[in-house]
Design brief:
three-stranded antiparallel β-sheet; FAD/NAD(P)-binding domain; alpha/beta; seven-stranded mixed β-sheet; 426 residues; globular
Length: 426
């Protein structure tokens, strides 16, 4: 064999070339090594899980729900169709979650806040001063490093004993005597999950839809946002001056893979045109459009915009919320701030599909009218819902009941034990 064709010689050539490049003033990163654990029966295409709680969707609400269920002692599996946890905060790139505070005090805490706070501290960032009431609501959003947040979420799932299945999604869901059988599929994997409770955190209540329960949706959806940066370096986790550029994708629809594909390709095509027209370097590009609106469940309770803006404290409130009424349209957005002192609440019954048992939702698919939902859909509120759903599903699984039948005092007690702030309680 000719020496130049030998693999060893090729490595030597590449190394010497890289050293030469480094000498010319370009930084070369070193290669480090890590070994993945062997996956049991990895060659087998079919897998079976027996769990207490199945969380479908690892986004803003889902990963918090799973961590909470795991910490509360439930055997928990989370199924996520993408490659990471965090949803809007990470994959969507809205890495400035809020709002955790209202009128000079913190109103949402718990596991979501724990993750946000730790990601900021580990990144050397700054946390807002919640004792100050900002002139504009976005001034108390928390700037986080989206990449760090995603891997911290995985770590906390592992510490809570939560199993994660990326690249998978349910295909069929059927009732069993003990709860549900959920058949999921990923590339090279068919997974059958038998569980007692399901938490649907898919954003559009997709499991609820598969089961035939009614969902609500407008003819026209709010535009999605595709986040990117042209011409200057993006520093994740830093202040407003470093925020990403935003492209509105009108007609963005996350109903299914085909509509999501169209939204993503439309956004990328427009960004490519800007690169060519403005002759600036593309420095950052999120992997997909951030969707604001899709299906919502028709729940046992529907939160109206009057409930939201009046700060109604529901009898079965399990979390606070706080954000302006924030409906995006083709002409932009004009947030309508809440009146001083008003803090909306979210009832447990708005997380329960009407007439259902052994399933609960969390996140932007909460039962609400469109204007109320425009404020409820933001990250801190979804994290609070996720934690409450994790508690309710866990307690229901242990008691052999359904989330709406779990005594509210037990839900509040366990939420408080895990750091959440209960509406109307000191």
């Amino acid at each position: 064999m000719n020496k130049k064709e030998d693999g060893t010689d090729r490595r030597d050539f590449l190394q010497s070339g890289l050293l030469g490049t480094a000498a010319a003033g370009l930084a070369i990163t070193s290669t480090s090594h890590v070994t993945a654990q062997t996956v049991p029966d990895a060659a087998e295409p079919e897998v079976t899980n027996e769990v207490d709680v199945l969380v479908v969707g690892g986004g803003t609400a889902g990963h918090v729900a799973a961590i909470q269920a795991g910490r509360a002692g439930a055997k928990t599996l989370i199924v996520e169709r993408n490659s990471q946890l965090g949803g809007t905060t990470t994959t969507g790139g809205v890495s400035f979650p809020g709002l955790f505070d209202a009128w000079g005090k913190q109103v949402i805490a718990g596991i979501g806040w724990e993750l946000v706070k730790e990601s900021v501290e580990l990144d050397g960032g700054e946390l807002p001063n919640f004792s100050r009431v900002p002139q504009r609501h976005w001034q108390n959003q928390v700037y986080t490093n989206q990449f760090l947040y995603a891997i911290l979420a995985e770590e906390k799932c592992a510490q809570a004993g939560v199993e994660i299945a990326f690249y998978e999604f349910p295909q069929t869901v059927s009732k069993t005597d003990g709860g549900w059988q959920v058949d999921c599929v990923g590339f090279g994997t068919k997974r059958r999950v038998r569980c007692k409770q399901i938490i649907d955190c898919t954003g559009g209540a997709e499991v609820v839809g598969m089961l035939g329960f009614p969902r609500l949706r407008e003819e026209e959806r709010q535009p999605g946002s595709f986040l990117f940066m042209l011409g200057k370096e993006h520093q994740p986790g830093r202040d407003l001056n470093q925020r990403l550029h935003r492209l509105y994708v009108h007609g963005a629809d996350s109903t299914n893979s085909r509509t999501a594909t169209e939204a993503n390709m439309t956004g990328r095509k427009s960004i490519l045109a800007r690169v060519r027209n403005e002759k600036k370097r593309l420095m950052h590009l999120q992997p997909e459009t951030g969707f604001r609106e899709s299906y919502r469940i028709q729940g046992e309770t529907l939160i109206t915009v009057n409930d939201y803006t009046s700060g109604r404290v529901f009898d079965d409130a399990i979390s606070n919320a706080f954000y302006p009424v924030d409906l995006h349209t083709k002409t932009g957005v004009r947030p309508k701030p809440l009146k001083p002192g008003k803090v909306p609440t979210i009832p447990l019954s708005a997380l329960i599909p009407k007439g259902s048992r052994n399933i609960i939702v969390a996140g932007r698919c909460v039962s609400s009218d469109r204007l109320a939902n425009s404020g409820l859909r933001v990250q801190a509120s979804c994290m609070g819902m996720g934690q409450a759903a994790g508690v309710a599903a866990t307690l229901a699984a242990k008691a052999g009941s359904t989330p709406l039948e779990v005594p509210l005092a037990e839900i509040h007690s366990l939420l408080r034990e895990h750091g959440q702030i209960i509406p109307g309680k000191a």
